[in-house]
Amino acid sequence: MEAKVKQIDISSVIFLFLGMFITVWANTSIKIMLPDIMTEYSVQINWLSWVNNAYSLPYAVLMPFAGKIGDVFGAKRFFLIGMLVLSIGAGLCVVDSAFWMVLAGRLMQGIGAAFVYTNGLILLLETTPEQRRGSVLGWWSSFIMAGAVAGPVFAGFLLEVISWHTVFLVVLFLALANFAGAIFKVKEKTHLSSSRSFDFSGAVTLISGISLLLLALTMGPDWGWFNPFVIAMDVSGILLLYIFYLVEKNVDSPMVSLHLFREKHFSAAMVAGFINNFTVIGTIFVMPIFLQLVRGFRPSEVALVLAPVAFAAAVVGPFGGWISDRLGFFPPIGFGMLLRGLSFLMLSWLSPVSGFIFMLITLFINGVGLGFTASPTLNAAVSVSENGEYGMTAGLYSMVQYIGGAVGVSITSVIVYSRVPSPEALKTMTTSVPGFSHSFVFLAGLCVAGFLVSLAMRTEKSYRTARRKTNAPNA
């Protein structure tokens, strides 16, 4: 079959990249619109978080389900269905009606995005020659980072010129245009899962368990970690995941192939992906608080300071993927983790008098490290997959990444708020600020842990080697 896919179908790849770009755009652009939405509908500030959560929670928990169903019944149809659902959700947010319409629209966007993102990855992996998979995934990570930057930038422009409804109108038009183009241009191979049965029991227990745990992480900071409802969600979520484990051990076509976790570089990639997103989202959470609380920056200035992370990752991403094609998974992942750890140590020195250029350079270094780690980590995770299983592994990896980000926000928020000095004390400080410095040292330590985890992948020279080992007798 390899002889038939020597060349990459550029037109197909462009529509797949654009679909994933739209999902990230729709997610990141919302944060800058929240004040306008609150004003227009006169809602309390605690409800605003649900405008974001209505998208992000279904997006995270449905990824393994969306990937598995694409494996079994065909990825292209569910990629297209996802684009259509996302379009309808954006359309609901365009209508100037009621706040509940915005929440419903965001919920539909999150559901659609899960199917677009995961099935887009299936199609990308199926139609890319394995020798060039790292490079293509590197460009994929660049599009993701570009969407992360473009979302708030263009949303801010449209907010000033017209209104926040226009942002969703742009998402609607982009999604419909991509839907129409993908019908004709996106190619699909016929390698479906060897079993056409679907593990609905596994899907229900996994989605329910992860949903409850993520809700507990989301509500814990506001309600209190020892609130009875938060504890009940934690206990119920863990119990459902244990039931999921028992179900998966006893079905012929499991939702998640548990044997994959015996592959050391798959397990290492999952842990590295968790750490990667933990530190990324932890940074996005901590830095704006430092810049606004300690330095008195405006939101637009905060966005400018954070932009080098995504910009550097977008530029370096293809190079990190190219290295993984030639040298294996460990060199780019290990180097990227160490580089990010160094940048976090530098950030731990931030003080109320730190220079603007120092912050930009430090965050640029962080973004370079992220560019080296992002696509090779995904490549390592999916490298154990046969045709017909890409969706399951890619969806599981994406969900683990999201959970890493959610845990990152929870833990860094505890570190910051338990140690940060009073506003009066901050005004007189000229050295590193407790709380913030502790958070960055903690993130640096996690990156060192990520480097140690990546050592498990140092024997894997390439995707081809990993596949050969997985398919070997008694593997």
From TrEMBL:
Its main location: membrane. Keywords: Membrane, Transmembrane, Transmembrane helix, Transport. GO terms for cellular component: plasma membrane. It comes from the Bacteria. The keyword Membrane applies. The keyword Cytoplasm does not apply. The chain crosses the membrane at residues 7-27, 47-66, 78-101, 107-125, 137-158, 164-186, 198-219, 225-247, 268-290, 302-322, 329-350, 356-382, 394-416, 436-457. Residues 12-462 form the Major facilitator superfamily (MFS) profile domain. It is a multi-pass membrane protein. InterPro entries: MFS (IPR011701), MFS_dom (IPR020846), MFS_trans_sf (IPR036259). It is found in: Cell membrane. GO terms for molecular function: transmembrane transporter activity. PANTHER family: MAJOR FACILITATOR SUPERFAMILY MULTIDRUG TRANSPORTER MFSC. This is MFS transporter. It comes from Metallumcola ferriviriculae.
